Amino acid sequence: MSKRKSSRAERKTHLDKVLKSLHHRTILIEEELKELESDRFYRTCIFGSARIKEEDEEYEEVFQLGRILAWRGIDILTGGGPGLMEAANKGAKLGQEEKNTKSMSVGLTIELEWEPEANNHLDIKRHHQRFSSRLDDFMRLSHSVICTPGGIGTVLELFFTWQLIQVKHLQKCPIVLLDESFWSGLLDWFKNTSLKRGLVSAKDFDFIHIVDTPDEAFEIISKHHDEFLKKNK
Fold it and tell me: Is 69 in the same domain as 123?
């Protein structure tokens, strides 16, 4: 092997070791942060499309959902962008003001050329360069998840949450799917195809809830919030 090739191979080996070390340290730090915050705040993560406009029905529904959750003092966590993320954060800010609660509106933004700016309804903003670190942050900070209509990103976020609960890397929590007409086909496919072939278990669906209204979603999250408060008295 030439000196140049040897040097490149050695450099690559060294960088691989550094990356693995940093990754391990990141996991340890995230676990410590999670432990320090686990009994102080309750956050619901709301995933949904950036493409939904303010005049759309879904926007109003998610706005109202963020609003009534904030009435209860629940923090609202989104991707911090436009569309249904904006609707949830905007509703959270109004609910916070209406009931004078300590609810916080949080956004985990990502660098995208078509989303250059975060929405204007955030109390806390954290920026990520990579989707992978952003997904990890969503999971670390969330106690429950609501998926509203969306595209590939929203479906990715749903399945990421679902799998982490399935493999017990995340504590079991409600995953609420808002809009039955949007989500039922996906779940039907899973039950009629993957479940029938034994590729998933029936118990994997125990924590998935399909609802049609913000009030129904609120009821499920409120019940889980009550359990959280009782546990952390």
Answer: yes
Query: 185, exposed or middle or buried, with CB in 10 Å at 0-12, 13-18, 19+?
Result: exposed
Where are the alpha helices (H) located in 51-144, listed in sequence order? Answer: 57-71, 84-99, 131-141
Beta-bridge partner residues of 127: 109
Strands 208-211 and 175-178: parallel
Q: Are residues 32 and 14 in the same domain?
A: yes
Cβ neighbors of 27 (< 8 A, separation 6 or more) are: none
Task: Please tell me whether residues 12 and 100 are part of one structural domain.
Answer: no
Residue 2 banded pLDDT, cuts 50, 70, 90: low
Q: What is the total residue count of the chain?
A: 233
Q: Contact at 8 Å (CB) between 38 and 141?
A: no
Whether residue 84 contacts residue 52, with contact meaning beta carbons closer than 8 Å, is answered with: yes
Q: CA–CA separation, 143 vs 101, rounded Å? A: 18
**Token digits for 107?**
């956004």
pLDDT for 132-182, tens place per residue?
889 999 999 999 999 999 999 999 999 999 999 999 999 999 999 999 999
Judge if 120 and 132 occupy the same domain. yes
Q: What is the 3-state secondary structure (H, E, C) of 48-60?
A: CCCCCCCCCHHHH
